[in-house]
Amino acid sequence: MSVPQMLRAALNRITVIGTAIATLTLAATPASAAEAIRARYGPLELKVAVTSIEAYLKDGTVNPDLAAYLNRLSPEQLDSVEQVLRLSITTEQRAIAKFLYTRQGEAILSRLGEVVRTRSNSGFYALRAALILAAGEPGGLTALGFLQQFPTDSLIVDIERGLGIVREFRQLASTTDNAVDYVTTLSNQAASSQPVVIDDIDGPRRPGPYTWQTRTFTVNDPQRQRRFRTDLYLPERQDAQLIVISHGLGSDRGSFRYLAEHLASWGYAVAAPDHPGSDASYVEALLAGTANEVTQPREFADRPLDVTSLLDELEQQAAQGELPLTLDLAQVGIVGQSFGGYTALALSGAPLDFERLAESCSDEDVQDTLNLSLLLQCRALELEEAEASLFSLADERIAAAIAINPIGNSIFGEPGLQQITNPVMIMAGSADFVAPPLAEQFIPFTWLETEARYLVLLRNGTHFSTIGDNSDGAMIALPPELMGPEPDLAKRYAEALSLAFFDAHLRQQ
């Protein structure tokens, strides 16, 4: 399926989500579920009884009230309604509950509550209750379970507001399509005007000639009261350049083990740390009830400082003769994905722009955003500006950076990204709906002024396509739709491009 087709498929579901909710039941009981769906558009109201929907789904019977509704849908929309009805999400109830009580979850509920309402007000609380209770059903979170648990006898759909949100999604999809096509055109033009001859095109994708050993140790930063585990991959050679891998939110140091092993096979030492306040164990704490937010604002400072503490620790180990080889700790490479991409860019010299971030995080902008990553970036505003300024997030030892699906448009801004002078590669997925490529990768790439800058576009790649399956923690299993159509291919590209990039800018090859 092409990128436009994927986007349109998603939009078709969104287009009918309000009206599809009208058919989200098979056997609802009046005491605990909506008895009827009222779809309102201005002064007009269309009422469909739940019993009519039940009859239709059972044997295809179309009662008059349902016929008035179905006749307004195109065949494509009817098909989307069926897909919504059959959709089942198998996720732990506590995971749904904890997320919906975080600020990010509440922001999403507020947006949905504008469309799905109770008789008197927003559907915010009714939606949350229904979703949490429905997630506890044996078959997982389903459309049927949602309406069975909706806590009022009448569910009201604001069609006018729903169509407004649909138009916003369509505009985003159209703009993304145009941007992807434009980047593709530029790439093709560059390829034809500046041909590159590569003797062994498959070379960087193959394993290298080195074996390696892996050590795991703990970095202790008493000043920040921060301790974290790190895996260190050491190739069997006398000296090596070092590359740090920074995982994304909810991942851990094992998430990019495949990439660490690939780089180690080519003679690089690789250090993969956990980031304790935003790793898989923190997600586990969130689900257990000992944490109450997706991540803490302090992580925007602590993550880059984790890498600085790690490099300090390795320098100390080297000075004490504890390493079996000589590491070049003056010219270090870094790879980061998502929140780790932010980490890589911050370490490369991009300062936080609180003024721009405050503008992007105004109540109106956040309420209407289709950029989920903005909800995370806005958390940084809860850092005291004076406190954040105490930290020098840039580390002069970082000499080259790869940012995969990074977030940072609002938190860095153009002036911040212009301060990066090191080589930078930004990787984007055209089907990334968490950190949309246009806002979070394409536009920030145009702000870079460093001479060596590269933009990589993975067509059909999602926010999760390059993440490996070697996590040691409690990462929530992602469905194939979120991983993208060919995650193994995306990982091979990550391996080959990372190796080529660091060979060029750390080894000067």
Protein topology:
Layout: H1 3-15, H2 17-21, E1 36-41, E2 44-49, H3 50-59, H4 64-70, H5 75-86, E3 88-89, H6 93-100, H7 103-113, E4 116-117, H8 124-135, E5 141-142, H9 143-149, E6 154-158, H10 159-193, E7 212-221, E8 226-235, E9 239-246, H11 257-265, E10 269-273, H12 280-288, H13 299-319, E11 326-337, H14 339-347, H15 354-360, H16 363-368, H17 372-377, H18 385-389, E12 398-404, H19 409-417, E13 424-429, H20 437-447, E14 453-458, H21 480-483, H22 487-505
Parallel strand pairs: 1-6, 9-10, 9-11, 11-12, 12-13, 13-14
Antiparallel strand pairs: 1-2, 3-5, 4-6, 7-8, 8-10
Short description:
With 509 residues, the protein is α/β, with parallel strands linked by helices.
Largest sheet: 8 strands, mixed
What share of the residues lie within helices?
Answer: 40-55%
Q: What is the overall silhouette?
A: elongated
Distance between the termini: 38 Å
The mean pLDDT is 81
Let me know the number of strands.
Answer: 14
Q: Report strand order across the widest sheet.
A: 7-8-10-9-11-12-13-14
Tell me the radius of gyration: 25 Å
* Low-confidence sequence ranges: 1-32
Protein structure class: alpha/beta
Q: How many helical elements?
A: 22
Task: Give the DSSP E fraction (strand runs of 2 or more residues).
Answer: 15-25%
